[in-house]
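We emphasize that the prediction below concerns an isolated chain of 289 residues; any contacts that depend on oligomerization or on bound cofactors are therefore not represented. The input was used exactly as deposited, without trimming of termini.
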Amino acid sequence: MAINDISLTSGMRNNLLSLQDTTKLISRTQTRLSTGKQVNTALDNPTNFFAAQTATARATDLSSRKDGMSEAVQMVSAANAGITGITSLIESAQGVAQAALATSNVTDRNTYATTFNTLMTQITELASDSGYRGTNFLNGQNQTVEFAPATAAATLQIKGFDATATGLGLSTASATSGGTAVSGDLDWGNTDATAGTSNIQSSATQLENALNTLRSQSSSLSANLSVVTTRQTFTDNMVNTLQTGADNLTLADTNQEGANLLMLQTRQSLGITSLSLASQAAQAVLKLF
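Result of the prediction step, given as a token string:
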């Protein structure tokens, strides 16, 4: 039977419309309580919805840059570990050079030269091992860190340097055998003790210069690390601000919505009772039969 075939009283129609409205409000309130948001679609509040979408999108873009910053921090940390190790090796080499200067015995100087060259080899190998995920600042590689959501809008280029023995200007020490230089640039084992002493002193000067270079480059890397960590903290705060702003525009007051639901359920019960009372007038006619 079509609904148009049924005749309802004005009171019953008003009660039905009121019940339908109440049902819609209950459904909306239940959605707000389940999602925790007052604005779930553009239909709820276009201004707040799109403003929240914009803030959330920017927060997401900034969050994606945090991974790059975190990786850059690890790259600098790896380089710093390498610098620390190389510094220790150079200090050991300084000790070897001082020991060589303390003697004029050619055999002893040749032995010290061999030890010195071993340390030079270790410096080069340690520099090569100081990379992180394919980037090694101690092999002269660079890394560009992105901070802003848009590419190249805000960047920092961290420059590496050559921390191998050759890159630091360190020459190997040659050891003589029977008065003939075997290898290297500075002949520690020269049969002329004065010449040998001069060569060892040159090595000592090179070691001092290498330490100064490491300290200078370490300071530069530390400054870059400070910039990256500062931008990390700023990005964390900015993402939090954007997300909070978006939530303020869309979140529902769950206490208020809970109270609304109770009131709407009460109104629904009263509406059903009212509809029942309105139908009793029609039922009274049946009692005449």
